[in-house]
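Changelog-adjacent note: as of this version, every example in the card shows the full chain rather than a window. The one below runs 156 residues end to end.
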Amino acid sequence: MPARPAPPKDAAGLAGRVAQLLSGPHPALPRPLDALAEHWARLRPRVRTLLAVALLVVAAGALQTRLRAADARWGGAPVAVLVAASDLPVGAPAAGLRRVDLPPAAVPPGAVGDVPEAAVLAMALPEGTVLTRAHLDPRGPGAGLDPSLRAVPVPV
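Full-length structure tokens:
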């Protein structure tokens, strides 16, 4: 038996099928939803508008409450700090940095938001580390040492 060619799929045939799907009675809903839909349809238009606006206000309030809870959990609004984009050695210019927003609880003390011009690193800054004032201290690597200790360079 010879195979029958498939009918051409034209836009008119597809549009007719879509129109057929969208016409006819409403789909059957579960009883509680159907009762709610009937009750909603019987309400006056202004009452429906007021209820919709009240629902939007409640949703906005709930969203704001969740945002405040997240801020409180992490210590407040995010803080912009500078983070090393790659490993930076001692004496390197503080140029390979990128600005990142971190929660205040994750920001170390002395974090720097802006780098002074011609600043060089006094301590190595591994990739992903937040830049602090100690990294830019003019005393160099000895900035973090106890006053009774000294840092001495050793040739490799």
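Structural remarks: Strands lie at 79-84, 97-102.
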